[in-house]
From TrEMBL:
Pfam families named among the record's database cross-references: AsnC_trans_reg, HTH_AsnC-type
SUPFAM superfamilies per UniProt: Dimeric alpha+beta barrel (SSF54909), Winged helix' DNA-binding domain (SSF46785)
Protein name: Lrp/AsnC family transcriptional regulator
InterPro entries in the record: ArsR-like_HTH (IPR011991), AsnC-type_HTH_dom (IPR000485), Dimeric_a/b-barrel (IPR011008), Tscrpt_reg_AsnC-like (IPR019888), Tscrpt_reg_AsnC/Lrp_C (IPR019887), Tscrpt_reg_HTH_AsnC-type_CS (IPR019885), WH-like_DNA-bd_sf (IPR036388), WH_DNA-bd_sf (IPR036390)
Gene3D superfamilies: 3.30.70.920, Winged helix-like DNA-binding domain superfamily/Winged helix DNA-binding domain
SMART domains tied to this protein: HTH_ASNC
Domain of life: Bacteria
């Protein structure tokens, strides 16, 4: 949460959980399920958006339906200490990178890459490797998902309120 965030209660958690399950759920449906009016739910959602708890609404699309059938994770090892800001600039130049984060351990960053096929993935990997500060990469191709897509989203709303 950002600095404007205030603590939120159990009703807020229920609203967030409902919106995470289906962002198109109406305020009336959510209110009916948790014992609030649609107006009260809207006020709470507006407050959660203003305080940065809810950062947006999005559609979840099956990547294969868009032709992105190959998925991989790439560990990135940098020459010296590459600042996260510089890594962020690099990953923004590759639309195939769907997530990127700095990590602990041996690697400096971990990239989630989606591609049309293995040849496309190889081309993306070569583009990433052309960056002068990248020393090496290690790739892991995804064979299958053992949990449903975005399991962290469902767990987040139910997690205790940690400050």
């Amino acid at each position: 949460m950002n600095s404007k965030s205030a603590a939120f209660d159990e009703l807020d958690r229920k609203i967030i959980t409902a919106l995470m399950a289906n962002a198109r759920t109406s305020f009336a449906e959510i209110g009916s399920a948790i014992g609030l009016s649609a107006t009260a739910v809207k006020r709470r959602v507006d407050r959660l958006r203003e305080t940065g708890v809810i950062t947006g609404f999005t559609a979840t699309v099956k990547p294969a339906a868009l032709g992105w059938r190959t998925e991989a994770y790439v560990e990135v090892y940098c020459e010296g200490a590459a600042p996260p800001r510089r890594l962020a600039e690099v990953v923004r130049n590759h639309p195939e990178i769907t997530a990127a984060m700095t990590v602990t351990g041996g690697a400096d960053a971990l990239l989630h890459v989606r591609a049309v096929d293995v040849e496309h993935f190889e081309e993306v990997l070569e583009r990433i490797r052309t960056e002068p500060f990248i020393r090496k990469t290690i790739s892991y191709m995804v064979l299958s998902h053992l949990l449903p897509e975005a399991p962290e989203a469902a767990a987040t709303a139910d997690a205790p309120n940690v400050r």
